[in-house]
Amino acid sequence: MNYFNPNDTICAISTPIGEGGISIVRLSGPQAIEIAESICRINKASLSSIPTHTIRYGKIVYNNETIDEVLINVQRKPRSFTKEDIVEINTHGGIILTKKILDILIDKGARLALPGEFTKRAFLNGRIDLLQAEAVLSIIKSKTDLGTKTALQHLEGHFSFYVNKTKEQLIKLLSHIEAFINFPDEDTDIFSNIRLESEFEEILNSLSKIIATYKSGEVIREGVHTVLVGKTNVGKSSLLNTFLNRDRAIVSKYPGTTRDALEELIEIGGILFRVVDTAGIIPSPRHELDYLSVEKTRQHYAKGDLILFILDGSRPIDDEDRNIYNEIKDKKFIIVINKNDLTSCIDSNEVNEWCSDEQNILKISVVTKEGVSDLEKKMVQYVWGGSRSNNEIIITRVRHKKALEKSFRHIENAFDIFKKKGSVELLAYDIRDALDAIRELIGEVYSEDVLNLIFSEFCIGK
Length: 462
Prior knowledge:
Elements: E1 10-13, E2 22-28, H1 32-37, E3 40-42, E4 54-62, E5 65-75, E6 86-92, H2 95-107, E7 111-112, H3 117-124, H4 130-141, H5 145-155, H6 158-182, H7 194-211, H8 214-222, E8 224-229, H9 236-244, E9 262-268, E10 271-277, H10 288-303, E11 306-312, H11 319-328, E12 333-338, H12 348-354, E13 361-363, H13 372-384, H14 398-419, H15 424-442, H16 448-455
Parallel strand pairs: 1-7, 8-10, 8-11, 11-12, 12-13
Antiparallel strand pairs: 1-2, 2-6, 3-4, 4-5, 5-6, 9-10
C-alpha cells in the first residue's frame, strides 16, 4: 500500500516506550507547526514566528488544562530530516504522559505515522537515497561498534558515492555504443576501441571486489555462529562464563551438567560472536533426554560458522575426542587445549595431526585466564582472514548483493559480446539492464512493494 501522502502531517513517539528522563514526540508535514502551535504556549512569541532550528521552553495546554512543561524544537523545510516542517516536543519521560500528548496531536489533525514513514519521506523528498535510508535502520539495529561504524559510513554516502561512480561509468559506456547505433555511417568502430575494453575491465573488477565483501558484511550484521564442542567436563561452560565475565552456565565437576545448548552474544574486536555452549556427546545414551541432547549438539555442529574444539589437557586423548574430531574435521575450527594450569597429559603429536597449522592450536586455562585473550584474537583473525582497511566499503544487505550481482552479470555478458564483436544492439541492451540494476539499488527506480518491504522493518517513530 502506498501510504505516502505529502499533504498529511504525521506524528509519532520517537523515543523508546517506557520510563525515562525525556520522551520526544515528533511531527512532520505541512501543518506540523500549525498543529503544534494550537497546543503549545511559549512566552512572548508564537511558535510560527520563532526561527528555524531553535528550541523554546513552553507548556502543552489542552482544553484549558496544562498537560506538561516541555521544550519545543522547530525545524523549517527544507532544512530538516524529511525536508518538511518538523516539530519535536521534548516532554517528561513516561508512558501515560507521552501517549496523552500523541493523542492530542492526532485529535488536532495529525495522523499516526506508519513504520519508517519519517525516513521514507526523507527518501522520497530527495534528502537521502535508498542506501542511506537502509543505513538508518542498520544504525538503529546494530549490535556492535563495528556494525555502527559500517552503517554510519553508508549513511554518510560513501557506498552511494561508489555506486554513483559505477552508474556514471555505465552511462559513458552506453553513450559510446548508442552513438555507433544512431550514426552507423560515422567512422566509429567501437570494437577496436581499446579504451572501452579497459573500461569494461575496470567496472567488472570493481564490482567483483565489492560483491566479495558481502561475506564480511553478513558477519557484521548477523554475527558468527560459534560453537563450543568437546566431550563432557572439558570446560566448555567455564569458557562461556569466562567470555562473559559472569556465571551464565552452570558448572560442576560432574559430567553431563549441561543438557541443552546455551547461546550468548559476545562482542570481541568489534565482531558479534553468537557463542553456543553445547552438551557433550554422551558415548552411550541411556534414555530419551540423552538422545535429544546429543542430537541438539550435532545440529549446532552442522550450523556452526566457527567451531572451538575443546580438549582437556590434563587427560590423554580418548575415543570420545577422536569421534568428535571426525564429526567436525570438515568445518572451520580452532583446537583449544584447556586446563593448562594442570599437568599436561595430552598427546601433542596426535593434536598436530588433526591441525597442521600450530597457530590454530591454543593452550588456555579458564581458571587462571591464561591464553584466553590469545584465543579471542585468533577468533577475530579467523573471521577476517587477515587485515582490513577501516575505510573499506562493505555491503551488508542481501538486496545490495543481488543488485550488484545482477549488474555484474549483464556487464559480463556485454563484455563477452564486445570481445566477440557481436550484435551492438544486444551489447547496448545488456548495459541498459546493468544500469537499471544500479538505479534500483540507489532508489532512482523503485517499486512500491520494495519500498514497503524496506521501511516496514523500521520502528514507527523513525
